Amino acid sequence: MYPTTPPSDPKEVLTKMYDLPRVNSQRLELADKYQLLQPQLLGDTFRPPNYLVQQILVARDVKLYYDPQQTSKYKRSDWFALVGVDPCYEQRDLKTSYRVWQEEINPFVVVDLRYSDTEIKDLEPKLPRENPSLSKWEVYEQILRIPYYILFDSKTNHLRVRQLVDNRYKDLKLSDPRIWMNGVQLGLGLWQGTYQGINRRWLRWYDGSLKWILTHEEREQKRAELLAKQLIVLGIDAGNS
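The structure assignment produced for this chain is given below.
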């Protein structure tokens, strides 16, 4: 039967809707912007001193295809880096996908950014009866053998690091929110600062002197400052002569 009660007054319905608590649109906008900028900052500061620039590849929000027998299977990561690439390697487009059987090199480090309400989703192994597909960490650990799997909760600023030890991931107990990686002679830690207009805690790479690796903009600014100083010195010298 059709309902016998008369329809609600549209004005009454709209009034009730506007009385509901609204989501902070500015907060959502910042969160979305952060999800784009954090991988950018990681790539901008990933400069291993023991590798040539041509031997380094970074990718963000790319599908990582790992099974040549089932070519449709993939895991999507927020950011990952490869090192030791042949300098003569013809770089393919990493904007959408990366197929390990074609590239013949696996990532050295993978970073996933996650929120508190979804952090349990893909961290632990799944029993066959629950889900026949492998979880992310199983693929990274057992198939790709990725040395470092980094998880960062952007809401709580909690850093979780899994390192491959004897072919098994080991959760590292961090006294400080940072991890040194000998393979690339770099460390990854939490930096409080402003990047692209947003002030918060960021994941950022640092060197052996515990100094944060400069971003492209910071390098350009430093270069400009040095040039300005040189011009001043030259101007003074010229005036004195």
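Interim note for the steering committee: Residues 25-210 form one domain. The radius of gyration is 24 Å.
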